[in-house]
Amino acid sequence: MKFTKYIFVSFVTLIVISFIIYWKFTNYEEGRIHYTTSEEFNNYWYSGEAEITSYQLLQARYGELRQGKATLIYVTEPFLKEKQVKPNNPNKRGITVLKLNTSKNFVTGIYPYHIMNSTFYPLSYQGHAIKIATSVTEWCGQAYTQLNNRNLFEITSHSYFENEADATYTLPKNILEDEIWTQIRVAPDKLPIGEQQIIPSLAYLRLKHIETKAFTAMCKVEKNKKSTTYSIHYPDLERTLAITFQSAFPYAIEEWEESYKSGFGKEAKIITSSAKKIKTIRTAYWEKNATSDVSLRDTLGL
User: Fold this and answer.
1) Contacts for 261-267: CB closer than 8 Å, 24+ residues apart
2) How many whole angstroms separate alpha carbon 277 and alpha carbon 265?
3) CB 145 within 8 A of CB 157
4) What's the whole-model pTM score?
């Protein structure tokens, strides 16, 4: 009888422990302060359209500025918090995120570069981005980094460079530079100010072959009537990012500058990359896949 009771108690204990572990892994962002979105916000971001903005890009690479184009694509969509993917069935239970796909295209000499970054930012509460994925492709090869926000930041990394080859590891949670671009559009008044620990852009870390980790950064906001500039300066990296956006809703990003050392050895020098807005359109781009829709690229100056 006592043995049976012992088995029962052990079984119940195991169930409780399993539930606690499951709860921790599936509710890692619970307890955050919830956003209250305005009618203006909802009308803009839940219209069934994406916001697409093209930019004239000057990108530093190998000690020179390269001409190219950049695109920011913002759209709201359902997201499964546990699997951290978009559901096949949009009615499946999940949360809503503001997704930002950032695309940069430029040419170095004979060969092209394509940089793609996807950030999935929760709209239901104040917290870190749930997922970030970055790829860099050029004729030498491909590199990919993915960050999943669970109990810790889980990193998966792949590269054709030997010392950056396949790797998985975790990081303590800190501010993510890549999430700043979405937070600006959601709650610019809550941007981090002063000295902070920030994980720089995954694309920057990849291009510079720098370890993915948090660095000390100084953050500030300069605001006037029409525009606001948010800047992040990393002393140890000798790098500064400045993002200028509209001071009024929908806080559209007008331009940005990114200064850091580019080049090799003694020839390396601080160069400022920049992007200036060409055109913004709002459309359900996933439906615009006919040959006749190519004209939209002309509209965007792409």
Assistant:
1) 262/60, 262/61, 262/62, 262/63, 262/64, 263/62, 263/63, 264/62, 264/63, 267/63
2) 33
3) yes
4) 0.87
For tokens 């239970």, the residue is: 93
Task: Give every residue of the chain whose pLDDT is below 70, as ranges.
Answer: 1-35
Peptide bond into 172 cis (omega under 30): no
Per the CB < 8 A criterion, the answer to whether 134 and 157 are in contact is no
Closest CA to 249 of 219, 228, 274: 228
Give pairs for 92-99: CB < 8 Å, separation 24+: 95/122, 95/123, 95/124, 96/122, 96/123, 96/124, 97/121, 97/122, 97/123, 97/130, 98/45, 98/74, 98/123, 98/182, 98/185, 98/186, 99/74, 99/75
Tokens of 24: 């921790």
- How far is Cα 100 from Cα 109, in angstroms, rounded to an integer? 29
**Residue 230 has which token pair?**
């948010």
Cα distances (Å, whole numbers) of residue 169 to 15, 67, 75, 142, 222: 29, 35, 30, 20, 36
Query: Residues 205-234: pLDDT tens digits?
Result: 999 999 999 999 999 999 988 999 999 999
d(CA 185, CA 200) in angstroms, rounded, equals 19
Cβ contacts of 148 within 8 Å, gap of 6 or more: 84, 130, 131, 154, 156
Q: Please state, in angstroms and rounded to a whole number, the distance separating the CA atoms of residues 135 and 132.
A: 10
